[in-house]
Amino acid sequence: MSQNHKITLMYNGSTFSGWQIQKNAVTVQEEVEKAFSVILRQPVEMVGASRTDAGVHAYNYVAHSFFDTDIENERLMLGVNAILPEGIKVKSIEDCDEEFHSRYSAKSKTYIYRIDVSKYGDVFKKPYVWRFRYPLDFEEMQKCPQHFLGKHDFSAFMSKGGQAKTFERTIYECSLSLENDIITMTIKGDGFLYNMVRIIAGTILSVGRGYLKSEDIPDIILSKERKKAGITAPPEGLMLYEIEY
Amino acid sequence: MSQNHKITLMYNGSTFSGWQIQKNAVTVQEEVEKAFSVILRQPVEMVGASRTDAGVHAYNYVAHSFFDTDIENERLMLGVNAILPEGIKVKSIEDCDEEFHSRYSAKSKTYIYRIDVSKYGDVFKKPYVWRFRYPLDFEEMQKCPQHFLGKHDFSAFMSKGGQAKTFERTIYECSLSLENDIITMTIKGDGFLYNMVRIIAGTILSVGRGYLKSEDIPDIILSKERKKAGITAPPEGLMLYEIEY
User: Which residues make up the CATH 3.30.70.660 domain(s) of chain A?
Assistant: First the structure.
């Protein structure tokens, strides 16, 4: 059996159609597999921890891949980074047990969602934030995160088209901060349904706009009805921050 | 006399030849004056707080400008931002006393200089950092900032071509931190000679490389000889962070 590898990477999602290979679209998986295949002179396949939607960014994405080579991991990383397109970088390559699986071995994932609420749009944060130009009641928004904590059926916070067969997920941490006109939502859970983080962010935003009240959130969760929750916030504000194993 | 205005702006220096208008180069001042002139339908001139070199970024740059208009400051800002090129944003426009001068009224300036020391190059920090790929002794670098504090003749930390007639400057704060493979130098002073921040950053880097020792810095300052200090660090890592009035 070949050696298994844990590969950590970061990417700017703006110019990619998400992680997973698909026809007629440029994806991160395709670019990363191509770069490894060129340097290793053999076909290389990756299994990623998450599909991630088009436009979503990753600070510490993890994939695993089986291959054998004489090239040291650090030299391999430098070679791959030299030919990867702008916006994708491999941060580390580590040998790991054959049992390690980027998706199934993950204990939890942490996402951040950022909203630029400045009147002008921060030059240095773009394109990694959602720019929102209307007034928001941040104090009211801060009452929301607590309601998502714990184990719940999150069907109300799921878009159609996901592949999940169970809908209960546990949220370990959820918090909101405001600094330099950037609102940052940090959320950590044992797993997330399709678009779940973006719908939670959109629901908190709907509370900030006054369309929903923070104390409505428990009922929205219990209803299991997608239409009761807020909008699906756009992908550019979302970043897969960390995967814990 | 027309109304004086304090104008705060941010810009990504990567694509501009600094602040100050010059022939055959695209500068921030030119773009900002042009945008104000279009919206106000009158020629508008700005006086900026600092020239800033080509490639240097600004988080809170300040200029002042005399003009009269019926347009409210916030509407004017939105109009100007709508036509400014990518990478420049006006953050605020405030009426101010006729005595206010963006340069002469400034009490101090704070700059940050950032070095990306990761092996891969942070996708999200580029192009706002200097990427440096060789090993650095950060512990030794941390002994440097204290030596710059206080009032000194900083002739050794000045490139030729500046317009300063006195060479004493007072440094109020100087510190170094390391987080997520980014070294950040923060420096606040009553003024800076030509390229002074970049030469201080380059000197601290030379200490990190072992070419200089931190305890040599007082003698380098006393020598007033440019050649005794370290290199001039490149502009892309430098950001004018704040101007205090």
Answer: 108-244
Is A120 close to B74, i.e. CB distance below 8 A?
no
- Copy the structure tokens of residue A201: 């962010």
CATH 1.10.3720.10 fits A3-96, yes or no: no
Q: What is the pLDDT of residues B64-80, one digit of tens each?
A: 999 999 999 999 999 99
Is B120–A91 a contact, with Cβ atoms under 8 angstroms apart? yes
Instruction: Summarize pLDDT for A199-213 with one digit per residue, the tens.
Output: 999 999 999 999 999
Joined tokens for residue A244: 């814990």
Give the angle B159-B8-B6 at the CA atoms, nearest 5°: 105
pLDDT tens for each residue of A6-26: 999 999 999 899 999 988 899
Task: Give the architecture (CATH level 2) of B108-244.
Answer: 2-Layer Sandwich (3.30)
Using CB atoms within 10 Å of the CB of residue A165, give its burial: 0 to 12 exposed, 13 to 18 middle, 19+ buried: exposed
Give the model confidence (pLDDT) of B172-186 as tens digits. 999 999 999 999 999
Do the Cβ atoms of B124 and A12 come within 8 Å?
Answer: yes
Distance from CA of B88 to the nearest CA of A (A): 7
User: Is A83 near chain B, with CB under 8 Å?
Assistant: no
State yes or no: is A53 an active-site residue.
yes
Closest residue, chain B, to A57 (C-alpha): B124
By C-alpha distance, the chain A residue nearest B10 is: A123
Give the number of residues written for chain B. Answer: 245
